[in-house]
Amino acid sequence: MPISLSGRSFLKLLDFGPDEIQYLIDLARGFKDLKRTGTPHRYLAGKNIVLLFEKTSTRTRCAFEVAAMDLGMGVTYLDPGSSQMGMKESIEDTARVLGRMYDGIEYRGFGQDIVEDLAVNAGVPVWNGLTTEFHPTQMIADMLTVHENFPQGIRGLKLVFLGDARNNVANSLMVACAKLGLHFVACGPNQQMPEDELVRQCREIASDTGGTITLSEDIDASCVDAHVVYTDIWLSMGEDDELWAERIRLLEPYRVTERVMSMAHPSGIFLHCLPSFHDTKTTIGAQVAEKFGLGEMEVEDAVFESKQSRVFDQAENRMHTIKAVMYATLS
Ligand code: CP
Ligand code: NVA
Fold first, then answer.
1. Sheet with 126-128, edge to edge strand ranges
2. Same fold, 13-134+317-330 and 151-266+269-307
3. Pocket test for ligand 2, best of 128, 236, 277, 297 (most atoms within 8 A of CB)
4. Structure pTM?
5. Topology adopted by domain 151-266+269-307
6. Per-position pLDDT tens, the chain of length 331
7. Whose CA is nearest to atom 4 of ligand 1?
8. 232 within ligand 2 shell (Cβ under 6 A)
């Protein structure tokens, strides 16, 4: 049976089979070639989408906007400051209104239950642009980037996530690795590990795909021979600034350093969803440096800027992969 995702929402990878996820990666690769060769692909001309952002964004917003325009679609961006959303109208009512006008809705915000609820009520495909629990569009870009660096196949590769292993990106990576048969290691302090129930679900999925899920506090054992070392910021959007001190105390030992990368596989790469605090050139980075004496947080600048780093390929791939997600669900 040929794969069709027509009319489906894209809320979390748990809802998709390995072949469907691989289909999106392959589709994105095709779109990347079309973009590179300047081949027009206005396949969804005449359609319109709306982007609902309750949290800030650079990559996800721009990826949706450029991808939609390349596909010939119109795009509207809404945030709580420039619409009735949140203050005067519930997200659910907003979605029901927008579902009458638009062909697809992207949502970035808080609980996963919100985006699930939107999808039930909108009557058009809804795409999760990041919730507290999951960041599924990021995963298609990340797995495309891994494919590009390991063209012989990604099954059986070891991907280590260092740091806040209970956040949306870590949760989603664990699911992505389980679905696609990679060996996922969450490496961080026990307090910041993924929820037991999600670990259980992922282990069950991995038992069918040949992947494994390991939780470990041991950096050396985790990072040895890693094909991919991945990290994310230590305090996610929506978390209380008061938590910085504790997070720094817990996660500083789990920073991605040159020493960590030297233990990785000789072809090992470094990934980060971005934005990153790898120096003090941001307001928060400078504040943390002043208050806690820490000039680099989750990753050393030397690693971020190293030959092993693929973070900007990964960022570019957000656009090609989001294009694939929209095309697959709207066509
Ligand atoms: N990685 C990512 O989602 O980046 P933005 O927050 O800039 O969208
Ligand atoms: N964990 C981060 C990801 C940002 C893309 C956050 O939620 O802020």
1. 74-78, 48-53, 104-108, 126-128
2. yes
3. 236
4. 0.98
5. Rossmann fold (3.40.50)
6. 799 999 999 999 999 999 999 999 999 999 999 999 999 999 999 999 999 999 999 999 999 999 999 999 999 999 988 889 888 998 889 888 999 999 999 999 999 999 999 999 999 999 999 999 999 999 999 999 999 999 999 999 999 999 999 999 999 999 999 999 999 999 999 999 999 999 999 999 999 999 999 999 999 999 999 999 999 999 999 999 999 999 999 999 999 999 999 999 999 999 999 999 999 999 999 999 999 999 999 999 999 999 999 999 999 999 999 999 999 999 9
7. 59
8. yes
Ligand 1 in reach of 314 Cβ (< 6 A): no
Q: Would the CB of 274 count as within 6 Å of ligand 1? A: yes
Distance of CA 236 from the midpoint of ligand 2 (Å):
5
Domain ranges of the chain: 13-134+317-330, 151-266+269-307
Residue nearest (by alpha carbon) to ligand 2 atom 6: 236
d(CA 37, ligand 2 centre) in Å: 32
Which CATH number applies to 13-134+317-330? 3.40.50.1370
**CB-ligand 1 contact for 138 (6 Å cutoff):** yes
Q: Is the CB of 60 under 6 A from ligand 1?
A: yes
